[in-house]
Design goal:
single chain; 470 residues; alpha/beta; 5-stranded parallel β-sheet; 57% helix
Length: 470
C-alpha cells in the first residue's frame, strides 16, 4: 500500500481585495482531506487599519475559514520573522504569499516575500502575482480632516506666529523662531492625530516664517540665499516630526487596544472560572457581553442535540428581546447550531436576520448559541475581536467542566469497583469462618467416632467432602 503524503499549507492574509485570489490559489493546492490548511495574519503594531481595510480583512478571514483554513491572528513588528516562526512551529511545507506587481521598489525596506526567500530554505514558497492600486498609507490612516482639527491647527500656528513676533522684536536669532514653529507642528500632530493636518502645517510653518520673519518681510521672497537651505531643512524636520508623532500615536493606540482586550479577557476569565455549571457559565458570559456592548443578548441552550427556547438578557430600556422569539430568528439560531458557523445580520449566511448568532463550541461539541441584537447597526472590528475572545474563553471553561465531569465519573466508577471487591472479600471471609468450623467438626466425627453406623458415617463423609471441595 502506497504512503500518502500529508501537506501542510499556509497562506498569508492581508487587508487587500486581491488577497481573496491568493487564498483561492492556496486552497486549490490542497490535494487530500487530511492536508493541513493555515491562514496567518500579522497585525503590524506600527500601523492601524482604517475601517474599509478592516472590513476587507474580515471578509478575507471569513473566506479563508469558509475554505477550511485554521485562521491565526498575531501582532508583531517583524512580519517576515513571525511568518517564518509560525511556519516552523506548524511544520508548513508550502507557504503562499501575494506579490503586488504594481508596487514600486522600496529602497528602505525589502518586500516581505524577498525577506522570506532569504530565510526559508526547506519550505516551498509560492508567490502569487496580483495587481492592485496601492494608496499611500500615510493618507489612509486617520486622514479624515474635521473642522475641529483645522481650527486647532490654525490656532496653534497663530500662537506660534505671535510668539515669533515677540522674539523678532526682542532681537532673538531666527533659529529660536524656527524652533517655535517646530514645537507648533509637534503640538498639531499630538492634538489632532491627523497626518494631513500635520503635513499641511509643516508647509504652512515654513511659509509663515518666510513671510513674516525673513527680509524683505511681508513677502515670500528673500535676500539671503542661505535661507533656501533653511527652508528645506525646516520643512524636512517638520515633516519628520509630524509623521513620527502620528506613528507613535498609532502604536500607542494599538497597544492600548491590546491592553484593553487583555484586561477584559482577564476579568471575564476570572468570572467564568468561579462558575461550576454550564448554565452559570452561559449566564455569566452573556451578562458580560451585554454590559460590554450595551445590547440585548439571547442564549439558546442545546440539549440532546436539540436547540431549546432562548434565555433573554435585556439591556436597553426599550428591549428588543422579543425579536429573538421570532420564528425566523429561531431558524437562524438552529442553522448555527447545526453548522457551527456564525450567521445572521452582517454575515454571508442568512443576512436578513436582525441579530448575529455565534455557536459556543469546542472540537467535538456545540454547547449553545448566543445571539446579539444589531438591528441596523454593525459590530466594529474591535468589538468582534472581544466577542470572539470571550466566546473562546467560555468554550474553554465548558470543555474543562466536561473534562471534570468525565474525570469524576471515572473516579466514581473506580470507587464502585473497589467497593464491590471489598464487599466480595468481606462476604467470602464471613462465609469461610462457619464453613471452617463445620469442616473441623465433621473431621472430628469421622476420625474419632468409631462406633458410628455406616449410614451416618457416609453422611458425615459427604458433608466433609462437600465442604472440602466447595
Amino acid at each position: 500500500m502506497s504512503h500518502q503524503n500529508i501537506d501542510s499549507i499556509m497562506v498569508c492574509l492581508s487587508p487587500s481585495p486581491s488577497n481573496i485570489h491568493v487564498i483561492r490559489v492556496a486552497s486549490a493546492m490542497l490535494k487530500n482531506k487530511t492536508d493541513h490548511f493555515y491562514a496567518l495574519y500579522i497585525s503590524d503594531t506600527k500601523r492601524a487599519l482604517n475601517d474599509s481595510n478592516q472590513q476587507q480583512l474580515d471578509k478575507n478571514i471569513a473566506y479563508a475559514k469558509q475554505l477550511g483554513a485554521e485562521v491565526e491572528i498575531v501582532s508583531s513588528d517583524d512580519i517576515a520573522g513571525e511568518i517564518f516562526k509560525f511556519a516552523k512551529v506548524c511544520k508548513v511545507n508550502k507557504l503562499v504569499i501575494g506579490k503586488n506587481m504594481n508596487m514600486r521598489f522600496d529602497f528602505f525596506r525589502k518586500p516581505i516575500y524577498q525577506q522570506l526567500l532569504e530565510d526559508i530554505d526547506d519550505i516551498n514558497l509560492v508567490i502569487v502575482p496580483v495587481r492592485e492600486k496601492r494608496i499611500m498609507n500615510i493618507f489612509t490612516n486617520k486622514s479624515k480632516v474635521t473642522l475641529k482639527s483645522i481650527v486647532t491647527s490654525i490656532l496653534i500656528l497663530f500662537i506660534c506666529t505671535v510668539v515669533g513676533f515677540v522674539f523678532f522684536e526682542m532681537g532673538f536669532h531666527d533659529s529660536n523662531i524656527i524652533m517655535i514653529y517646530l514645537i507648533g507642528v509637534l503640538l498639531i500632530a499630538l492634538i489632532t492625530s491627523n497626518i494631513i493636518c500635520s503635513v499641511v502645517s509643516s508647509i504652512a510653518s515654513v511659509i509663515l516664517f518666510n513671510f513674516y520673519f525673513t527680509l524683505p518681510i511681508l513677502s515670500l521672497s528673500f535676500y539671503d540665499s542661505s535661507y533656501l537651505m533653511t527652508f528645506v531643512i525646516m520643512i524636512i524636520v517638520a515633516f519628520l516630526i509630524s509623521t513620527l508623532m502620528n506613528k507613535i500615536q498609532l502604536t500607542a493606540t494599538s497597544y492600548a487596544n491590546m491592553a484593553n482586550v487583555s484586561r477584559i479577557l482577564l476579568e471575564t476569565n476570572q468570572l467564568l472560572q468561579k462558575r461550576q455549571s454550564v448554565e452559570d457559565i452561559f449566564n455569566c458570559g452573556c451578562k458580560q457581553l451585554s454590559n460590554l456592548f450595551n445590547r440585548d443578548i439571547a442564549y439558546f441552550p442545546i440539549e440532546k442535540s436539540s436547540i431549546q427556547n432562548p434565555i433573554l438578557f435585556p439591556k436597553r430600556e426599550n428591549s428588543y428581546c422579543k425579536e429573538f422569539l421570532n420564528a425566523n430568528e429561531i431558524g437562524v439560531a438552529k442553522w448555527v447550531a447545526i453548522n457551527g458557523k456564525h450567521a445572521g445580520a452582517t454575515t454571508r449566511y442568512l443576512s436578513g436576520s436582525k441579530s448575529i448568532y455565534y455557536a459556543v463550541l469546542t472540537d467535538d461539541k456545540i454547547y449553545g448559541v448566543i445571539g446579539i441584537y444589531l438591528g441596523n447597526d454593525v459590530l466594529g472590528s474591535f468589538d468582534k475581536r472581544i466577542l470572539l475572545a470571550i466566546l473562546s474563553e467560555m468554550a474553554i471553561c465548558l470543555d474543562n467542566i466536561k473534562s471534570n465531569e468525565e474525570k469524576n465519573e471515572a473516579i466514581i466508577k473506580v470507587k464502585k469497583e473497589q467497593f464491590r471487591s471489598d464487599l466480595l472479600r468481606s462476604i467470602s471471609h464471613d462465609l469461610r469462618t462457619p464453613l471452617t468450623s463445620i469442616y473441623g467438626n465433621a473431621d472430628v466425627l469421622l476420625n474419632d467416632n468409631s462406633n458410628l453406623k455406616n449410614d451416618k458415617k457416609m453422611l458425615y463423609t459427604k458433608i466433609y467432602m462437600t465442604i472440602l471441595c466447595g
